[in-house]
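tool_call predict_complex ligand=NAP
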Amino acid sequence: MKFSGKNVLVTGGSRGIGAEICKVLASFGLKVWINYRSNPKLADDLKAQIEADGGSAAVVKFDATNEEDFIAAINLIIQSDGELSYLVNNAGITNDKLALRMSVDDFNSVIDANLKSAFIGCKEALKVMSKKRFGSVVNVASIVGEMGNAGQTNYSASKGGMIAMSKSFAKEGASRNVRFNSATPGFIATDMTDALSDEIKANYSANIPLKRFGEAKEVATAIAFLLSDYSSYITGDTLKINGGLYM
Ligand code: NAP
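tool_result ok
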């Protein structure tokens, strides 16, 4: 995979899909800024692992829903490296309930964590990448943002919003050579899906044409493609990584 840029910020990078994205991008020679919110040990251990494998990494703590802290982190990266080449808005949460039991607070918390955080990241990335006339951003949305899911009205709204928002950013960034795309993973084996019961997991797997949950690394490699020079003529698009569950 070819990358003209030199560094990347991955929000929620210390575990799950985010950690795999960090490892894969470091293996392609990018300096990886691992964002974490709550567990410094996980982030430090990942940094050590990447460095032991010959890569370059740094750790940056912030809550991605906090605009001031997100901007401060990007400023720190620019001060350190002189630029920010790539951003992956990966941080996300679920708070599942049937709609009739979902409070407005339940709804807003997921919109904030998933959609608002990505908006802040996209906006700041566009600002700094425009100056260099180069950059690529991937928003980690979800299959649920494309097809909906019972119990996830908040999550589906946030992820569908990310897909639509990426297209608008793509239109605003194109004249400055800044690309924005979405990735929509299906069901991937991480802490997030560990919360599902074995029965629900078996039901989902039975309906997936490839008959299994995806691995975080399979999401990470697809996202690496979307960030890289190999996808230089792709912007505003949505890459499905779902084993064929939604085509
Ligand atoms: P995960 O294992 O639950 O990890 C989520 C990560 O996001 C954690 O590192 C978490 O940090 C971080 N995070 C959450 N809110 C944050 C905030 N406000 N600021 C900074 N970091 C924050 O989830 P995952 O399965 O790896 O999911 C990663 C992304 O893929 C999410 O956007 C998710 O919606 C999406 N996705 C996942 C699946 C799946 O099947 N797993 C499918 C489709 C899409 P803490 O450690 O501090 O909590």
